[in-house]
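From the thread on structure requests for the teaching lab: each student submitted one protein with a one-line request. Submission from student K.M.:

"Model GTP cyclohydrolase-2 from Limobrevibacterium gyesilva, tokens only."
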Amino acid sequence: MNHMPLRDDTASGVAETQPESEPRPDPAVLRLRAVHRAAAELKRGTPVLLLADAPLVVLPAETAGARGLREMAALAAGPAVLVLAQWRAAVVLQRPVLPDGPAVAWHLSPLLSDPAVLHSLADPTAAQILPEVPEPADCPADAPAALALTKLARLLPTVLVAPARPDAVERAGRIGLLTVPAGDVLDYPTAMAADLVRVAEARVPLDGAPDARIVAFRAPDAGIEHLAILVGHPEQAEAPLVRIHSECFTGDLLGSLRCDCGPQLRGAIQRMAKDGAGVLLYLAQEGRGIGLVNKLRAYTMQDRGLDTVDANRALGWGADERNFLIAATMLDELEIANVRLLTNNPDKVRALAACGVNVVQRERHVFAPNGINDHYLATKAERFGHLFG
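Reply posted by the TA:
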């Protein structure tokens, strides 16, 4: 319940009690919080002001609507351009691109100001209604930060950007739009991963591993939670079994036959129980970091003939967008420095080693194809270098 300030009527006059001193904010937490909020605004179709040497107004093509376009125009000093991740541009233009090439920008014609057209340019699973190739434009210097913020929102990385008016910060405040520094956006994945802390722990007996515990981790911005499933007491082992497992709603929970995630999850826990101890790091990085909605879109593209790598790229994402510093930070918090990594993916070994974790051995973790995921497993071996032998 809210109360009015207490009053002290004295002979010298009426005086109100002084408010308690406000807590001093942690600048690092404020930076994380600003990025987190800005990503949430983009999901709602609300533009964000990206602060940089040349500030930009940013609005994702996927969520752009009439209101968002009007709000964007209120802050813009000039016409917007449409920026696409290079892989998505290659699909739309039907031409090859450099693997690590720059983003591609197009001028907006009246047609490209139509939200339905913008959405079709971002999403290859939507009806394609672009009648002609748009006119190319110079890509703004801070376009990578705009794309990065769009990806943090788990939106398709095709985004409208426009130069901001000199008074854009003031105008943004008046109409309730958020501002965020471009540098904080680019630093967010590392800062979020490095600042994870333990927030909860409970004993959760599992089928085949009755002595299991689950420890939850969260960044200071109170964002996405990641989980560690501890079997036995791995913190007491010299080099316990460890598996980095990215969440897979379709495979882990529903038993999808399109992947091998469910068998890998359950098989890892069973093997740890047999070994006496282990840690399964269950990371909130669905679809190799692109999110569940985009993974479903990628499945649609796979049904049209693409493999898992090219399906992700057709959406504008990289083949693997995961951040393994999250796993290293969790292991550090669990006081586990030496691991036997249960994986077929040599990139995980290299990523953990680069983060300071001593991988004393890679442990093979293979499950037979089921007749539906055969091509998926072959793609893992051929294009990701997974070791199934």
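TA comment: Residues 27-43 form the longest helix (17 residues). Residues 1-18 have pLDDT under 50 and may be disordered.
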